[in-house]
Amino acid sequence: MEWTTDQRKAIDLRDRNLLDIVTNSAKPVDIDRLLIVTFTRAAASEMRTRLFEGLQKLAEKHPANRHIRNQLQLIFKAEVCTIDSFCTSLVRTFSYELLIDPAFRVGDDGELRLLMSDVVKDLLEEKYREGSDAFLNFAETFATGKKDDTLEELITGLYDFSESAPWPEEWLDGCLEMYKIDSEEALCASPWCAWYLEHAKNILKSNVAEYEEIIRLCEEPMGPDYCIPVFSEDLKLMKEASEFTTLSEAVSKMGAITFLKRPPKKGKKNPDLYDEAL
Questions:
Q1: Does the predicted model carry a pTM greater than 0.90?
Q2: What does each C-alpha distance from 218 to 10, 208, 270 come to in angstroms?
Q3: What are 181-213's pLDDT values in tens digits?
Q4: Residues 6+ apart with CB under 8 A from 63
Q5: Cα separation, 238 vs 49, whole angstroms
Q6: Domains in the chain, start-ordered, CATH in brackets?
Q7: Could you give the C-alpha distances from 25 to 62, 76, 161, in angstroms and in order?
Q8: Which of 264, 206, 215, 271 has its CA nearest to residue 239?
Q9: Cα–Cα distance for residue pair 273/183, rounded to 1 Å
């Protein structure tokens, strides 16, 4: 998108506050000519109050400045609002251009969720009727049981997450690009593979810590010390499995883990310690 010279100046402007811009003696600007947007209504209300108080102080300091006095009147007409509120106002103002009823209202979260659920259900029914191999493979992979609740949650969750990005469609396209992998080298170079390796190591480290605590309990007086050889062997396997640097090593080492059978309770050892350890 090409910006005009004035738009580019506004975008690149730094280290200035709104009152400086409005009361600039070289080129003063009326505050109702500015669009001031916030993320919440509370923040918009606070912003308007702070601007009004700041203008009051400036008016007291410069009582002869007519421009500043005018701003105290214009502040109540200024566009100090949330992004949603501004967009709603814009759509309502130009509703005749959009061919929609100007008396429209924005649905609440509950209504929007119901509408989204209906849309997703209709979409899934349409895709089932088409019966493409790609969709059926998707459904078989991610659906659980005979209902499509999991698929609906997955689709709506992905939509919600994408909407947090500045350009949702581009973000989704970028996600697809990450899965276009045609070799083991490309797979290992992907960012989610690095995340998987780190996640797997963290799980193994957590398991190692748990087994070390189990062995400590077994070593307690009247503890089930006859379990120590079994747990020590399991601990050794997990420590060895955590020593990997590549995906193929991780798959090979974790796939080779075979836990020994837990020994039953026996003797006069403390059964509570046995239960706590296992």
A1: no
A2: 69, 15, 10
A3: 888 788 888 887 888 889 999 999 998 998 898
A4: none
A5: 61
A6: 14-98 (3.40.50.300), 109-178 (1.10.274.50), 188-277 (no CATH)
A7: 12, 22, 45
A8: 206
A9: 50
